[in-house]
Amino acid sequence: MSIHVGIDMGGTFTDAVAFRGTQLLGKAKVPTQSDHLLDTILSALEELGIQNPEEVTRINVSTTLVTNAILQNQLPSVDLFLFPGHGLDLRSFIWPVSYRRLAGEIDYRGREVQPPDELEWHRLAQCLNSDCNPRKIAIVGKFSHRNKEHEERLGAFLQNHCSPEAIAFGHRWGQANFYRRSLTTYLNLATSNLFEQFSVNLQSALGLRGYLAQVYILRADGGLVALQKLRPVESIYSGPAASMLGALAQNQPERGYLVIDIGGTTTDIGLILGDKPLLSTKGAQIGAFSTLIRTLAVRSVPVGSDTAVMFGDTLQLSNQRSGPAYCFGGPQPTPTDAMCYLGLVDFGDSTRAAEGLAMLLPVEQRDPANLRWLAEEILALMADEIGKAAEDLDREWHEEPAFKIWEVIHRSAAMHLHAWASGGAAQGLVPALNKRLRIPVYIGKHPEVSTAIGTALARPTFSTTLHLDTYYRQYCIEETGEQGQWTGSRRAQTEVAPFLQKLAETQAQDIEINSQEVIYEPFDFYPIIQGFETVGQIIRGAIHIPPGVMGRVTE
Amino acid sequence: MKKTGLLFFPAFDWALSETHPEREERLLYTQEQLLEEGIMDLPQIRQYQPGMAAVNDILLTQGVLPHPNEHDLDPHRIAAGSALVLGQAWATGQIANGFALVRPPGHHSGATVWDNRGFCTLNNEAILVNFLRSQYGYKKIAIVDTDVHHGDGTQDIFYHDPNILFISVHQDGRTLFPGTGFTREKGGPNAWDSVLNIPLPPGVGDDGYHYILENWVLPRLEKFNPEVIINSAGQDNHFSDPLASMNVTAQGYAKITDLLKPDLAVLEGGYSIEGALPYVNMAIILALAGLDYRYVRESVKPTRPQLNFSTFKHYCEELKSLNVQARPSWLMKDAPFLPTGKWYHVPRSIYYDTTGFQEICYDWIRQCSHCGGVVLLDSQHAGTHQRAAVIRIPFEACSVCVQTGYDLFETLAGHRDSVLLQDQPSGRSKIWHLDKGVEEY
To answer: In this structure, are residues B235 and B256 in contact, taking their beta carbons and an 8 Å threshold?
Structure first.
């Protein structure tokens, strides 16, 4: 049986695991070199000590490459041209990038309300040609996910008149939300060179080392996509998604539990309900950018086991890591020192832990009773941050909208009867979490590589969501932004299922669709009435393999 | 900064029938518009999840006859329950104001409910009003109904309640369903002048509507000085509405909202599902949230003839004097089953247009100078001949009226198919039913 490798790049460490089926073969941990992510991946692979690279058929990676580039503001400039039409004042939102608005309007059915102004385009082209740098151009129209015509016409025009370096269209992100679509299109274009380069380098480096494996990248929603098919910006926040999949892979299917992944710098909190990680109803937020990137409902709190602790007027967690824990020779006391001092973990130098904690207290108070109190207080503080995030997550679940009577009547209450913690220092936080959350807290057998396990066992996913308007004979696919002509009848109850099936097969081509994993969402039919006659239908439906794992870890 | 609460519940799996105006498609394009504009992302907006009204919340306000179990109430309970979710959020200070953008609507549903009427089964705003009174102790509440149709159900429910001001601005009942809402209808004998009806001629646009608000509705509200203002935010005054003949634009609706400044708004009618709803809903939300709504514009332009403004002003003057001149005229009567006291007697017949039958209802109101007076609604379904009685002990009832209500319940139980007692001051209700006996809620 072939080998699957999972590599999870965290802020502090990069973890790797190798699996044969669901059997864990080996695990490795190397420090993350944030400026040399490729080297980090390669050294993690080396550390795994795989004898026959050709046996590895799949390498799944969750990478911080794009996340870091965006958060550190290392993006090239992109010209953003918008067709906002009427409606909400664009200034109602905060735009982290500048844009230029152009005339032309489409409505919610994809009908043209106002044509674009070609004279305006000529002026635009002149302006773009006034400096010689080739441009990256993002073009986004309101309701372009229903009709891409204005975007494509401007694209063709600029191609002819300005020879830009690259043009990206908003309609390729086929979900509603003009503001988010604009920023997502922008970010994807801005990160494409960076990702392309990484992708080429990674594949050639792997080839040189004898790996023939297909590389997959984990997405923020826990989906797994082949490197070549991934849109760069979709790789943000794959770490938290990996944590949730890691929990899935190490738990039996149960109704619901809280997942707490404690890293060195951040802790991710998510919710598993009915063996599925809870998806956020909103797209991912990264820095100042609101995007359409589907993401799991995960709260990341900037508190980890290596977070520096300070004691001014009150005890505080600094939200920063200034190095390893004091008990590992680091510069400042951290929660890890508290765990070490209390004997909750079996690593670290406990004498140094006591020293580190003592630094926080005035000289006259540095006695065992006070140190013990302090250590417990630090962990309680950390558990409280996690508890608050968990409550916030519950609230998100409770405020999730519902659009159908069926959904309201059959709504199940969010139930998490226990919490499942992972991360190298998870063991040390169990008592404090237990006290704060008032539910049992469990830990798996491999807490230190749990996210890598999630990455390795993630299953390839695909999703095809159809929006079909049989009156205007137009269909669009949310995930790819594909738009096309419907040639079927106006009442399409029987035709629509095979139509969607075919679209899904095209999209999933290289994923082996195991029919048991495929989910067919029931179609919604909205009769379109004019006068008192049904003149067509709007039909929504979807086929997908949802994020999940290939199987549970066998011991 | 307190946010504007938004609860969007389009009931995508519910329609009165496939081609009925109240169908799945009704809020489909509004959803497309709200999602594309990113309304839920606005920092000024907080989104809420639909709820389901408890049976007691309904029965305290409306008699669902002969028994609630005999009706499919789920969609209506969710619409009403959603209004309650926002009511609770508002009363507990979570939001500055809120908009329940929900269907099915409710304002044609009255104090007695035998079936669906004017697309409505449960009265979302009335249930909300009594919820705010019973749960949070509010006493004076005003409802302003800006749907193009007369809010006859809401009027019916609060007609005898001096603590609730009901104002309805609508297209004249002589030219539109439900054919009521004349300016002489000003409230019951113990609650005279707690209802203000402003019927408008067809063709009134933004100017005319705003004129009425500024010169009549707002001064009346100011005089009443309510603790809560609720807006029945129907959108069928729009120039493209297929069921009515007015000329208001999305901008006009935003300004209406800006003028009224409702604490809570609840969607009512509005059946121009493409030409109006996506834009009017946007405009109302932006106005509630204090955002700039000037760029919201319909994709089609008005084509209906506009009523001349000076003609309209003249009409208003006449209407105002008619309203002032209206005098109460009530009949007093006695019946063997009535406890001691003086009783006003108002016979009525109510038409249920959705399935087509009449309800015959005799309203008995106890004359009382201490409270709104206990009310008996003695009702009969003219099609099935089922008879049911609703006894309402009003909020702030005096002790005599409370006792009278309980006495009436004892007397009538066993003599109708069902009898409902609404003990509003205690927040409880109970039903006696032929087959089920007494059930308390």
So the answer is: no
Report whether B8 contacts B31 (CB < 8 A): yes
Q: Looking at A519-533, B102-116, B162-176, B238-252, which range is the least confident one?
A: A519-533
Task: Kindly state the DSSP code that residue A525 receives in the 8-state scheme.
Answer: E
Q: How confident is the model at residue A511 (pLDDT cuts 50, 70, 90)?
A: low
Rounded Cα distance, A483 and B260, in Å: 43
CA distance A408 to chain B (A): 7
**How far apart are the C-alpha atoms of A528 and A533, rounded to whole Å?**
8
Q: Tell me the shortest Cα–Cα distance from B274 to chain A, in angstroms.
A: 9
Residues of A in contact with B12 (CB under 8 A): 403-404, 524, 526
User: Rounded to an integer, what distance in angstroms lies between the CA atom of residue B398 and that of residue A132?
Assistant: 86
Q: Out of B36, B37, B41, name the one closest to residue A290 (CB).
A: B41
Strands of the B228-233 sheet, one edge to the other: B45-47, B3-9, B95-102, B264-267, B228-233, B141-145, B164-171, B195-200
Inter-residue contact A182 to A170 (CB < 8 Å):
yes
b/e A303-312 (16+ beta carbons within 10 angstroms → b): bbbbbbbebe
pTM: 0.93
CA–CA dist B207, B212 (Å, integer): 9
User: Is a pLDDT exceeding 70 seen at residue B33?
Assistant: yes
Tell whether A484 lies on the interface with B, counting CB pairs under 8 A.
no
Task: Please tell me the predicted confidence (pLDDT) of residue A35.
Answer: 84
With CA atoms as reference, the chain A residue closest to B6 would be A401
Nearest to A538 among B18, B28, B74 (CB): B28
Tell me the per-residue pLDDT of A394-447, one tens digit each, with 9 for 90 and over. 888 877 888 988 888 887 665 678 999 999 999 999 999 999 999 999 999 999
CA distance A65 to A85: 35
- Provide, as residue numbers in chain A, all residues whose Cβ is less than 8 Å from the Cβ of B50: 401-402, 408
* Banded model confidence at residue A512, pLDDT cuts 50, 70, 90: low
Closest CA to A97 of A162, A185, A157: A185
Tens digits of residue pLDDT in A120-170 = 999 999 989 887 778 999 999 999 999 999 999 999 999 999 989 999 999
B13-27 in b/e form (b: 16+ CB < 10 A) is ebbeeeeebbbbbbb
Contact: B13, A404; criterion CB under 8 Å: yes
Rounded Cα distance between A368 and A374, Å, is 10
Q: Nearest 5 degrees, angle CA B307-CA B310-CA B312?
A: 50
Residues 283-302 of A with CB under 8 A from B: 290
Contact A143 B19 (CB under 8 A): no
Which residue in the set B33, B41, B52 is minimally distant from A179, CB to CB?
Answer: B41
